[in-house]
């Protein structure tokens, strides 16, 4: 699921407890869906302008 790693700092989010550590891609997908409160892995809602702000806030 490269799309997840392209849009989210997964390791940092796990360290901070924002999402749980997972053993399978399916479990990671569920964590991401729950985090964003979405039903499908479609990151179109993250516009390019908001991505740097999101990354900066999560990774100070």
Reported for the largest beta sheet, the result is: none
Rg (C-alpha, Å): 11 Å
Query: Helix amount, in percent?
Result: 55-70%
Mean of residue pLDDT values: 81
Number of strands: 0
- Proportion of β residues? under 5%
Tally the helices.
Answer: 4
Poorly predicted spans = none
Describe the protein in words.
- With 60 residues, this protein is an all-alpha fold.
- It has one domain (2-58).
- It has helices at 2-7, 10-15, 25-36, 50-58.
- The radius of gyration is 11 Å and the shape is globular.
- The model has no long low-confidence stretch (mean pLDDT 81).
Please write out the topology.
Blueprint: H1 2-7, H2 10-15, H3 25-36, H4 50-58
How would you summarize this macromolecular structure in one to three sentences?
This protein is an all-alpha fold and 60 residues long.
List keywords for this structure.
0% strand; single chain; mainly alpha; 60 residues; 55% helix
